[in-house]
Each structure stands twice: as structure tokens, then as C-alpha cells.
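Input/output pair, single chain:
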Amino acid sequence: MNKSVLREETFKLIYSLEVQKTNSEDQIEIYMENAEMSEKDKQLVEEIAKKILELEPKIKQEIAKNLKSDWSIERISKINMSILEIAIYEILYVNTPYKVAINEAVELAKKYGEDQSPSFVNGILASVVKDNNIA
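Output:
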């Protein structure tokens, strides 16, 4: 499975946890049991998701400080939040080239989000990159 597909599967898992308002091991196991991918890919997706959940407070803090002043983190849709969490994890903690992470996030936003999701996701991630002096 290529990285884009793995990223999308990770998004689906993170999103399902956002919707269920849980990050329990049990929910991850249930999701992974029903996922249609190889055991190797399941392990990789589960490992990435657990790392994102572990870093979630730091990642959400990064999102919050890069929102416009009239926005609160609670206004962000669960889809956009899940996409942002994965991209910020990749940019700040995995050293994925930021252009790749942003492009992949925007593509997920186009596929799963609302009409304004791609530009919103792009704007937040561009701000995160600038704020962290990555570019």
C-alpha cells in the first residue's frame, strides 16, 4: 500500500475516534479488525494513529495558535481536525516534507471535507510551517 493510501486509512481511523469521542485501545482494535488491508499495513496505521493520539494535546495546541482570532478550535469540523492532526504530526514529528504533507492533506480535504475545507486546511498548515520556521 502506498503512503497516500496509508495516510487515508490513518485519517479514517483518527476520524472514527474523533466521532466516537474516544481514543481507547479497544476502539482502535475494533477498527483494525474490520479494516481491509494487510497485517503489515494495519500495524503501520495503528502505530501512526497511536503516536498521533499520544501527541494530540501538542498538535491541537499547534492548531489553536494558528487559527484566526475569531475562530476557536471547537468550530473545526471533525473531518478537518483529523486531517490537520495527521498533517501536523507528519510535518513536526516525522519530518515529512511540508509540501508533501500539505498537498496530501488538501487532497483528503477535497475528498472528504466541505467546499471550504481544502483552503482552510491549506491555510492552517501553511501557518504552522511558517510559525515553526520550517519553510
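The mean pLDDT is 92. The two ends are 29 Å apart (CA to CA).
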